[in-house]
What we know:
Strand content: under 5%
Helix content: 25-40%
CATH class of the domain at 4-59: Mainly Alpha
Amino acid sequence: MIHRAYFCALARIFDTHMSLTRQDVEKIAHLARLSITEQEMPVYVTSLSSIVDFVAELSRVETSGVEPMAHPLDGQRQRLRPDVVSESDHHEKYQLNAPSVQAGLYVVPRVIE
Length: 113
């Protein structure tokens, strides 16, 4: 899955209705570390172009008078729990099972040399 940031960047580049080219999709696939076959390429070009066009269309919507909302229903609020500690610290008990502990930290074999 390609990250949303790619689409937002593409929407800014293609702020008018413009289809992505095969080279554009190849660059996006490279950045996203995707392997796209020759058979899949036309499908990706078409679908990504429509997504970029849709994001560009959304960015043209006038939202200056719209206030941010925390909940889609009027009068509803997210219930929050109190920010208090509800569990005690048992790290010493858990570290009794560890093969090696120093200064309250687990000691593991070096992996990178």
